[in-house]
Structures are given as C-alpha cells and as structure tokens.
Design brief:
The complex is a heterodimer of chains A (about 260) and B (about 260). Chain A is an all-alpha fold. In chain A, about 85% of the residues lie in helices and about 0% in strands. Chain B has about 260 residues and is mainly alpha-helical. The longest helix of chain B is centred in the C-terminal third of the chain and has 38 residues. Classes of the chains: A mainly alpha (about 260), B mainly alpha (about 260).
C-alpha cells in the first residue's frame, strides 16, 4: 500500500493526532515565547509532562489511585448486585414496575450528588462515605437498563421455556438475564461515568487521600502541573473504561442481533 | 364492582403514589418504633420536620435568595452551552475534516466527568458566579454538541441531494434540511444537558460559592441541620423532575413526525 493510500484510509486518526500535536505545540510555544503568564495560574505542556513523569515514579499517585479505586469498586459492585435484580424483577412483575417506577425515575432524574455532604458527615471521610455515594449514583443505570432489557426480551423464548416445563428460575437464568446482557453493559457504561462523579465529589468535599483529593490539594497550593496530571489521569481512566464497555457492548450485541436460540 | 374497575384502570398511578406515600409514612414513623442510638439522632430527620424547615425557610426569604443565585448560574451556563454547542455540532456534522480535528477532545471530555475541572475553574475564575457558570457550561455543552452532531449525521441523504440539485448553497441546505431534521436530537441533548447543568450548579456551589442552594445544603450539613439539607435536596429533585418531564413532553410531541427515535448519548 502506498503512503498516500494509507493516509486516506486512516485519515480520521491522522487528523486527530495532528490536531492534538498542533494544539500542544501551540500551547507550549505561546506560553514560552509570546505570552509568558503567571505560572501560578497557567501552565504549559512541558511542565505538565515533567510533573507527570515525577508522579508516575513516586508512590503518592499510586496510593491515591488505590484509595479511590477501592471506594469505587465497593460502591460499584453493590450497585451491580442490587441494581440488576431490582431491574429484572421490575421488568418481569408488572405490579412491581408500577410501584417502583415513579419513585426510582424521580431519583434517577434528580442530582443525588446533592446528598454528598450528608453522606460524608454520616459515613465519614473514609471508604464508606465515598462507596455509598458511588453506589447511590451508579445503581440507577443498572436498574433501568436491566428493566428495559427484560421489557425487550423475545416473548417466544419465554413461551418455549414455559412449554417445556421450565421453572421460574430457568426463565430468569436462561432467557431473561442473557438477553438483558447488552442492556446491562450499556448501563454499566453510564454507571461508570456517574460513579466517577461520586468519587470525585466525595473526595473534593472531604478526604485526606485519593485522586480527587490530590487534585484539590494541588489546586489549593497552586501546583498547576500536578493538578493537570491528576485531571489527565482521571480522564484517561474514564476514556479507557468507557471504551472498554463500548467494545464489550459490540461483542455482546451481535449475538443478540442474530437471535440464535441456545 | 365499580371500585374494582376503577382500580384496574388506575393501577399504575395508585401503586406508584401508594409506594411513595408508604415510604414517607414509614420514614415518619421510625422514631415511634425504634429508638435511635444517641449518635444517630444528630443525623436523623423526618418528613414532617423537613416540611416545617421548608415552610420556615420559604417565609424568611432564605430559599428565594439562594434559588435566585442558583437559577442565574444555571440559566447562564446552559445558555452559553447552547450558543456554543449547537453551531459546533452543526459544523462538525457537516465537515468530516473538522470533525476528525476536534474528535479527540470531544471524546476525551465527554467520557471524563467534567466536575473534575472544578478546582481549576475556581482557580481561574475565583469563587463566585463565573466559576459556576463555567462548570455548568462544561457539563452541559457536550451532550448538546454530540446530539446535534448525531442529528446532522442522521439527515436523509436523498433530501440533501434534492436540495443540492436545486442549487441550494450550504447555508440554505442547513436551514431547509439539516436543522429541522436535527431538532429532535437537539431536544434529547437538551434533556441530558439540563441534568448535567443541575449537577454543575450543585457541585459548583458546594465549593466555589457563598450563596445558592448548593451552598445552603453544604453549610447546613456542616452545622448538622439535616432537615435543611433535605429541603435543598428536595428542591433540586423537584426542579430536575419538572424540567426533565417538560422536555420529555416536548420530545414526544416532536416524535410524531420524526422517522426514528433519536438516539441519546
């Protein structure tokens, strides 16, 4: 393949890379030569890169990440454990749907992060408060996506299980849960974003360690490069997790689209 | 018999409100059947106390004052994000080169919770209205931009070709085909943007503010005035639900003519 052919094929990727390179170099050059602003309020890529390298080699960043991810994983796991069953039952039992739907919809629509100060004073600044916040924010995407998944289950499959004398348990485990999987993964993608908000706000509000705390602390002491490092690492994590879920969605969804009966 | 018919017809409504009422009654009755440990009474409140606190705050003008501050930040930030998000979405929807050029930033920012930018924005814009407007803007602009983009991408090729063949320029094409086609998507984006904007107001006022409903919640929490915290949370809940429902109404009204349901991101 010629170089030109290669370029047109991956045009999007190359343009994107060029654009990032362009912006970073303009930022660097403008701040170095043309408009050297106060380093307390603005910083440039070379300083951020130096801070990045230093932090990666140090122990504090990894400790902060470990603290934050522990709280995140606790909250997120509970959201999975609670959210999916509630969603499944809501989708399957009409009366449960009628009872829970208005209540949960109202909670889902509202900014529950407003409860953060209360959670922190009740549960403390440690893992528990943050995990509770993550749970509260990330449980609803699981509930509503599992619910939507059940609602869209092929009723033919349900009838087949019923005709062959399958029990209620078979229905859940063999038909409803598998056909709901793509929806649940889509829900997980949303839940990750909301869970990250929970961690960040919890740590901004009150914490003594964690990545959110590292960012605020860097901000309070005017260490702009360190602050940018924290922000960049958080966005990297967010992008990687979201893209992973998108990939997972794509690998799970085709099987559903082909509607193979297993 | 009549009563039974009435029940079957109204079952969703009866069960839905019944559940909420039952929860509130249960919550209210907790002190009657369970004596809380001494430490917990500090954090506990009941719906009746919350209602009393709401009534009091409403009449001494506290809520009005904070609400006004929050509303200004919300409206200014959302307005700014519409002014920026719509044109950028339309343009990158029409120009693949610009789209590829901006895509890395849009993807990265959209995946990242923009709340993380708050300390930076407070540093740059100070404690006050501007840092709040900017965090609301940062939260709300991406859903609008991406949905507008999706709407433009989804436009019917045939319509574009027809308008082109009759000699329309890009501007007329935009006005006649692209914009009307994108409206349902834009409305769906607006619904998401409202949620993000309210989140921005709340969290922005937790930290970068000395006024507003979010500040009211945060300062009440520090003083262990749990009922006031719940008053603030309830106001935010009511506002979000009302705004979301209003936009959903608008969406379903527009849905009557649109060919397929708008995908929201």
């Amino acid at each position: 393949m010629t170089a030109k052919g290669y370029f047109t094929e991956h045009r999007r990727l190359w343009l994107g890379l060029c654009s990032v390179f362009f912006v970073v170099s303009v930022w660097e050059l403008v701040l170095t030569y043309i408009f050297p602003v106060n380093p307390f309020f603005f910083t440039k890529p070379s300083l951020i890169a130096a801070a990045f390298k230093e932090q990666i080699q140090g122990a504090k960043l990894w400790h902060d990440l470990a603290v934050s991810s522990r709280a995140f994983l606790w909250g997120f796991s509970f959201a999975v454990i609670v959210g999916i069953p509630v969603g499944l039952v809501m989708g399957w039992r009409r009366r449960v749907e009628y009872s829970l739907d208005p209540f949960l919809t109202a909670l889902y629509a509202s900014p529950l992060v407003a409860l953060a100060p209360l959670f922190i004073i009740v549960f403390g600044v440690g893992v528990l408060g943050k995990a509770a916040l993550v749970f509260l924010l990330s449980v609803f995407p699981f509930v509503f996506n599992a619910f939507a998944g059940v609602k869209s289950t092929d009723s033919l499959l349900i009838n087949v299980i019923r005709s062959f004398g399958g029990s209620e348990k078979d229905l859940y485990l063999k038909v409803i849960l598998p056909s709901t999987m793509p929806y649940i993964i889509a829900g997980a993608r949303l839940a990750i974003g909301r869970g990250l908000v929970g961690i960040i706000v919890g740590e901004f509000y009150a914490a003594s360690e964690g990545i959110g705390f590292a960012i605020t602390q860097a901000g309070d002491t005017y260490r702009l490069p360190d602050m940018f490092v924290g922000i960049i690492i958080l966005s990297l994590i967010a992008v990687v997790l979201t893209e992973l879920m998108r990939k997972l969605e794509m690998t799970v969804a085709p099987w559903r689209a082909s509607e193979e009966v297993r | 018999m009549k009563l039974k018919n009435f029940y079957t017809e109204q079952e969703p409504f009866i069960l839905g409100t019944g559940f909420i009422v039952a929860l509130l009654v249960l919550w209210e009755s907790v002190p009657l059947w369970y004596t809380l440990p001494r430490g917990m009474t500090l954090f506990f409140t009941t719906p009746s106390k919350i209602a009393a606190a709401f009534y009091e705050l409403l009449f001494n003008g506290e809520i009005e004052k904070h609400f006004y501050v929050s509303a200004v930040a919300f409206l200014a930030g959302l307005g700014l994000s519409i002014i920026v998000g719509l044109p950028v979405g339309l343009i990158i929807g029409r120009s693949p080169t610009l789209e590829a050029w901006l895509d890395p930033y849009v993807t990265a920012f959209n995946a990242t919770p923009r709340i993380v930018l708050l300390p930076l924005l407070i540093l740059w814009f100070g404690i006050g209205i501007w840092s709040k407007i900017m965090i609301v803007f940062a939260g709300a602009v991406f859903p609008l931009l991406i949905n507008t983009y999706a709407g433009v991408k989804n436009v019917n090729r045939v319509l574009v070709d027809v308008v082109r063949s009759f000699g329309a320029n890009e501007w007329q094409l935009m006005k006649i085909v692209v914009l009307p086609n994108s409206v349902p998507y834009i409305i769906a984006g607006l619904r998401l943007a409202i949620g993000r904007a309210i989140l921005g107001v709340v969290v922005g006022e937790f930290f970068g503010s000395s006024q507003g409903l979010g500040y009211m919640i945060a300062s009440a929490a520090t003083n262990y005035k749990v009922d006031v915290v719940f008053v603030g949370v309830a106001i935010f809940m009511a506002l979000s639900v009302i705004l979301t429902l209003a936009v959903k109404q608008l969406e379903s009204r527009l849905a009557s003519w649109r060919p397929e349901t708008a995908k929201t991101f």
